[in-house]
Amino acid sequence: MQNDISQALRAVQGGDFRTAQRLARKGLKADKAHPGWMNIAGIAECGMGRPKAGLPHFQLALKLAPNFHEARRNLAQTLFLLGRAEEAVGHLRQMTRANPQDDVAWALLAQVEMARDDGAAARTAVDRVIALLPGQARGHLLRARLLGQMGEEAEALADLERAAELEPNNIEAQIALSLPLARADRPDAARAAAERAVSLAPGHVPARLALAMRLVEQGETEAAKEQYRAVLEIAPGQAEALEQLAQINSGAENAVLAPQVLSALKNVDDNGPARGQLHFALARIAGQAGDEDGFAKHLTRANAAIARLMPYDAGADTRLSEALMARFEPGAEGDGPGDGVAPVYVLGLPRSGTSLTEAMLGAHPAVRPLGERIAPGRLLGPLIDGGLPFDAGARAAFRQGEAESLPALPEGTRFYTDKMPENYRLTGFLLAARADARVIHLRRDPRDVALSLWQAHLAGSALNYAYDLRGMAHRFNLYARMMAHWHAVFPGRILDLAYEDLVADVEGASRRLAAHLGLDWVPEMARPDQAAGQVLTLSANQLRQPVHARSVGKWRKHAVLLAPFIAGLDPRLWPELG
């Protein structure tokens, strides 16, 4: 019996879950009340992607042997995977009380507490992991993830750098370090981390994907293509590589790539994002080839696939938007100027020209472009969720937290930019927090914005409305209501800039921007394509081209495709559309 169990455990360690399952069934046939075989049977089911089937095995193993530590850990992890964090946390707390030295249980508890949005409990657990494993990267990587979720970007980066220092050959540490370095405006270090990961493991797909993205951000498109092609040599159907490569390929290159994308689509798993990614790739290929029917078909399928994974809750969105507006009424006053460099919030709908505007501002020597910063949303999240007042103390805490989250800024910097488009929802807080904050609001024809979003696969779940045309119209209507409200509450503090005017007269628009900040205009502001350095958004390729107006009015060519969106726009909120 013991030899059979040892053989099954070796199969588990080697990833051969079918052999482990077969041996477990054989063992249970001989002894139905053996907790060890129950545990192995559960591991095998989970390893084959069937956590629901594995769960009762772990439960029965614990019923047979209540002190079976490993089975309890496996049960907790499975509950967590099934979205049952509240149940998982009880088992993990019981485990850490029974065995305070179990670093694996503490690490899992930290992840579960993160999922439950209990930052304090997660921090306690992850600090315990670091104390138990002082010379290892694992705890620092976990704490960096937690700190990143809490908006403490500088502290998260410090933990990632410590992890890489402790284990220089840890591939996961190098990959995890790359993006935060890019966000901290250290592009060379970000690229070096990704290059080191690839050098450590040339066949490691996530490492090559990270390096490819750093190259795209830095404008090295051909080098990025080489990395994506290397990924496809390793894993020919890798959906992310196919999608990203299709976005930067020429039409001729994509004609060659198309059969590989179609082949990958035949074997795709319906439970993840790959189907949507591949349809986005095929839409891009069809669009380049002038196949309008194929373009529309693949975009519809791509967005439907992602929408199934991230459905949009219009009711919850309306309630949140109305609650945010209700906090600030006309006559609201902001605090005095903050200390140090002042923020410039460039906001509006995604794909409305915020990246281009930031590039224009960033060409000025007194302005430091910092891209899409998550710190304001993270700092304000607990206050918003808890319905807490944004009083003088809260405003001071927000200013301090935002200042602490900034990277080192060059001497002579007077302003930094934050171009998180969705900050339009937080405008009341941002303007109330300090009188020297500037807001630049990009406006663009919502139909052109919708077309751009419909073609884009956006990271994260914050823009889940973008995969549903009716949901997109609903969110756009909320946006129009909110911006009208902020103008009424803070008259004269928001500069509206139309995308159509910006691309028609770059110099004139850049002069308006300089005047809004009280800066002398410099000619470089009218050539953002020459000033664009690292760009961390979908606009990376566009920003390195001279400003053009080719996308203005492009929606007309796709009016039938966009019909559900156009019908959903409230004409009272969009009178300029006629």
Automatic annotation (TrEMBL):
Pfam families in the cross-refs: Sulfotransfer_3, TPR_19, TPR_8
SMART domains found in the cross-reference section: TPR
TPR repeats: 137-170
Entry keyword set: TPR repeat, Transferase
InterPro entries in UniProt: P-loop_NTPase, TPR-like_helical_dom_sf, TPR_rpt, TPST-like
Signal peptide: none
PANTHER family with a match to the protein in the record: PROTEIN-TYROSINE SULFOTRANSFERASE, PROTEIN-TYROSINE SULFOTRANSFERASE 2
Name used for this protein in its record: Sulfotransferase
Organism: Ruegeria marisflavi
